[in-house]
């Protein structure tokens, strides 16, 4: 417990990084890029609309992006298992 002047106790709460990332992306409806585990030549881009404690993601307007050719394949709304995620990064619109 931390204390705020005059003996008032303030409880500190740890916020998981994915929660703050989700809140920020929802606020601006920003796109994210997901780096995939063992798929270095392909990434997924989309808007996070949901997630769980295992970092499974639901992405809206998702696209498969091939890094070498820059080809994009529209996927729509998908569920991506957390086991396949290496990194999340914001994509400038």
From TrEMBL:
- Give the chief site where it resides: cytoplasm
How is this protein named in the record?
Small nuclear ribonucleoprotein E
GO MF entries:
RNA binding
Q: Which Gene3D superfamilies does UniProt cross-reference here?
A: 2.30.30.100
Q: Which GO terms describe its cellular component?
A: cytosol; spliceosomal complex; U1 snRNP; U2 snRNP; U4 snRNP; U4/U6 x U5 tri-snRNP complex; U5 snRNP
Among Pfam families, the record links this protein to:
LSM
Q: What does this protein do?
A: Plays a role in pre-mRNA splicing as a core component of the spliceosomal U1, U2, U4 and U5 small nuclear ribonucleoproteins (snRNPs), the building blocks of the spliceosome. Component of both the pre-catalytic spliceosome B complex and activated spliceosome C complexes. As a component of the minor spliceosome, involved in the splicing of U12-type introns in pre-mRNAs. As part of the U7 snRNP it is involved in histone 3'-end processing.
> Taxonomically, which superkingdom?
Eukaryota
**Which PANTHER family does this UniProt record tie to the protein?**
SMALL NUCLEAR RIBONUCLEOPROTEIN E
Q: Which SUPFAM superfamilies match?
A: Sm-like ribonucleoproteins (SSF50182)
List the keywords (alphabetical): Cytoplasm, mRNA processing, mRNA splicing, Nucleus, Ribonucleoprotein, RNA-binding, Spliceosome
Query: According to its UniProt record, which protein family does this protein belong to?
Result: Belongs to the snRNP Sm proteins family.
Compartment(s) where it occurs, according to its Swiss-Prot or TrEMBL record: Cytoplasm, Cytosol; Nucleus
Q: Where is the Sm domain?
A: 19-93
The species is: Salarias fasciatus (Jewelled blenny)
Q: Which BP terms in the Gene Ontology apply to this protein?
A: spliceosomal snRNP assembly
């Amino acid at each position: 417990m931390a204390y705020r002047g005059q003996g008032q106790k303030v409880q500190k709460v740890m916020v998981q990084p994915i929660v703050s990332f989700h809140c920020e992306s929802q606020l601006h409806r920003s796109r994210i890029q997901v780096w995939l585990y063992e798929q270095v030549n392909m990434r997924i881009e989309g808007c996070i609309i949901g997630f769980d404690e295992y970092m499974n993601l639901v992405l809206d307007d998702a696209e498969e992006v091939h890094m070498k050719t820059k080809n994009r394949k529209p996927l729509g709304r998908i569920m991506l298992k957390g086991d396949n995620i290496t990194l999340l990064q914001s994509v400038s619109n």
